[in-house]
Amino acid sequence: MSSSPNETNDLPDLEAIREKYRVERDKRLRSDGSSQFHDLAREGSHNDIDPYVEPGFTREPIEQETEVVVIGGGFGGMLMSVRLRDQGIEDFRIIEAGGDFGGTWYWNRYPGVQCDVESYIYMPLLEELGAIPTEKYAHGPEIFAHAQKIGRHFDLYDRALFQTQVRALRWDEDEQRWFVTTSRDDVLRARFICMATGPYSTPKLPGIPGAADFAGHTFHTSRWDYDYTGGDTTGGLTKLADKRVGVIGTGATAIQAVPHLGRDAGEVFVFQRTPSTVDVRDNAPTEPGFADTLDPGWQRKRMDNFNALMDGLAQEEDLIGDRWTELTLGLYEELERHPNPAELSAAEMGLIAERVDLKKMERIRGRVEEVVEDPVTAAALKPWYRYLCKRPCFHDEYLPTFNRPNVHLIDTDGRGVDRVTAKGVVANGQEYELDCLIFATGFDVTTNYTRRVGYDIEGRDGLKLSEKWRDRTSTFQSFHTRGFPNCFFMMGFQAGLTPNIPHTIEEQSQHLSWLIRQMKERGLTAVETSEAAEADWCAMIDAGSGFSQLQQSCTPGYFNDEGKVGETAGWLAGFHPEGSEGFFTCIREWRAKGDLEGLETS
Ligand code: NDP
Fold this sequence. Notes:
Blueprint lengths: L13 H13 L10 E3 H4 L19 E9 L3 H12 L5 E4 L8 H4 L11 H4 L3 H4 L10 H14 L6 E2 L4 E7 L4 E6 L4 E9 L8 E3 L10 E4 L5 H4 L14 E5 L3 H13 L2 E6 L5 E2 L18 H13 L15 H12 L8 H26 L3 H6 L12 E2 L3 H4 L5 E5 L7 E2 L3 E4 L2 E4 L2 E4 L9 H5 L3 E2 L6 H4 L18 E3 L11 H21 L5 E3 L1 H13 L2 H7 L26 H15 L5 E3 L1
Parallel strand pairs: 2-3, 2-7, 3-4, 5-19, 7-20, 9-18, 10-11, 10-18, 11-14, 12-13
Antiparallel strand pairs: 1-8, 5-6, 6-7, 15-16, 16-17, 21-22
Helix pairs in contact: 3-17, 11-12, 17-20
The structure holds NADPH dihydro-nicotinamide-adenine-dinucleotide phosphate.
């Protein structure tokens, strides 16, 4: 890419970069969008198992009346339960498919699993538990153990039905109750439902020909088979020493797992469709005196600081100081150079943001060149899109792994692998024979909600959620959708977007637990959004945020509905235009008014 003297900071020519990004995006656009993927359960795949529990668990079905059923035992369901308790609501049940609490951190136990968001802001309820993470970016087992600690500390274990999947949810208008049926033949009757089902709960496989034909060993990263590989989340995959291992996918999961495979497996083939941005990790153990420096309320202050910076809001200090917040700081540095930033038009601001983005991307691409010795491999590992088009990744060992003689990057120039055969994987027309094939192909984030959770929800007058949300997701405040009284969604769509998902969950839990308490105090049995309030909220979301505009120009991925922004009804189908801070302020102010504006009650 040529440099132009007209550009600041020796950056390449912006027009040429835009064209390069467009070309790279266009060659990845596909007509089948999100439907290119299959989910594990529907595949009938042997991946659809829980490798972390003893097989054969049984229990008697339960029939119970309860105030609240919380669906999901990840941080969403746990925080919701904790906040219900804060509001004096003790009568609730948690239904969870896994064998323990933890959600994402229960399922994802692949080698190297680690949090990419600073653990001091990511791990919930640190002050309440008197806990301090051991490192700036904690590893998976510590986060999973933290979830279990929350479960014990707040007495949630007695409320949980583990290894249980919801099969159907039906609202009974006469009884003003939800009927919940499960895979263990339970029947729960509940006044309220909290859908804490998480965005990354349904693993997906690429819908490539032959996926079921592979005769070797295969699994999805969220169902890691340590019996086969040996070792644990810290590595030591000794049983792979004489194996040829293929990995499909190069997203945040693969970035963390591939260094362990490179170290331990005989030979590794990494099949790449689009490279991720891989910035420095810069992890460090928590300094011994860290806890003594903290005042009460420190975690909240730190979370707010991160969030505001991610929303592009100027802050006096950057408490996190990492590669996430760097983007906003870069923007402010540029603005400070301008004589009169307040007078900049939206277009001028956009241009400055684009240059800051380009500067960051050039540094990330430069890092690939510095680290990866083989120039062809280095060129293939360079990402060509704007920074937030895909989930940013951070790792210090991923790129050097490609300098190992036993590790081969099989770049497919945006096409993806051709097919799977009994012997291995075909990419670029060549067959790679493998003993083991690992799918690091992520989770179903972009298809309709009911497909992702695996059951339908039947609201008032038999209205099915799959029908209501067939073409678009539509809510009021992200929680309510008309026709489904007392059913509250905590997914984050049409809410505020932040990489620190537990922060959104915390705000949503406080909001919903407050609402449930208000209903009890006011003697209300049912609440749902008015048609007008839902329409107004959707119109505001549709007006779009800076992020929605960016999504249009991005290379395909789950951040932009696989290149079909607005055509599907997935998790990222729209956000509050004022970012997560705007969303949090909006729901806080709504609570403070106390008149439940926009909701109809009975
Ligand atoms: P992703 O969806 O991010 O990545 C899936 C990968 O599979 C992509 O590289 C994709 O390529 C590739 N792929 C899909 N189909 C094909 C095909 N036919 N041929 C070749 N490659 C293919 O899943 P991950 O599990 O990596 O991450 C999911 C999310 O989980 C992350 O985005 C992040 O939010 C979260 N996560 C968080 C962590 C944390 O630190 N907290 C750690 C790990 C994950 P393409 O890009 O071209 O679509």
